[in-house]
Request: fold
Amino acid sequence: MEIVKPKRLQKGDTVEIISPSGAIRPRLQEQFYKGVATFESFGLKVKLGKHVFDQYYYSAGTRDVRIKDFNDVWRDPEVKMILMSQGGYTANQLLDSIDYEVIKNNPKIFAGISDGTTLLNAIFAKTGLVTYHGPDLLWTFGRKMTELFKQNFIKTFFDGNVGELFENKNWKHQERKDVRPMRWRSIRNGKATGILMGGHVECLSNIMLAGYAPNFTNSILFLEGTEDAAHLDAKFEVLRLNGVFEKINGLIIGWFEEHEIKEKDRNREVSDIILETTRDYSFPILEIGELGHNVENYVLPIGCKATIDADKKYFSIDEPTVL
Reply:
């Protein structure tokens, strides 16, 4: 499959915010507009999708209005970047109505996290367009961004040259004070190079079931999640049973929000579950803190080549992220 990259951002470009999954509750509107202001501080113009604030139960409007906003924004020549407002649960409702041909013919930067995994990987699978895991409006730009991650945004989308990524020495959970600082760790040693793919493990399971998953052959898979250890165990097993671990060159695991089970005799570390699930394989596994919910995320371009060296705690993006 031919890899397609969007054009880099320039000051004065327009970014459109859409809500293809979860509804934005009224209490989050102040945070929403803080995110808009942060975007404007990068010299970008912000446009809002027509139905960005709609609510249909737990979704940001009905399936029909969400898919209309989604397909329309790719046809808008003014818009250079499309950003999800947040994640949710129902992005998979759009998969069979997305105009993938229009996307392929009008490549733009598309970014999101959480349920964004559903759309990011499906679009890459169907079109070859590089998509970007990590930032959304509410939970990235609507919160305080430290300089390290502002610079990562600039390097990824304006410069197109990221290179080596480094452990955040000031890592902290954005809502909990009881979480110890997370440091990069080698879970299984070794070095690997491959195409980045991944995101929220439950969403990956969903798109595999739906038939919209990318081909994981020779990839560097990255995973995060928001379920407890027992449910994560089941989702990792889905990947194993679908042959994903037979295909990948390496694995990156991040912060798994809510992974702790309160009963200590039932709880276990995510890294232990991963090692057990992948015991028949030898690919390297690197654990990092800059991937997951309620932590600051590096932008990980799905479809770009990357290298990890678990022994050296090394991670790099090896090619331009935009044109």
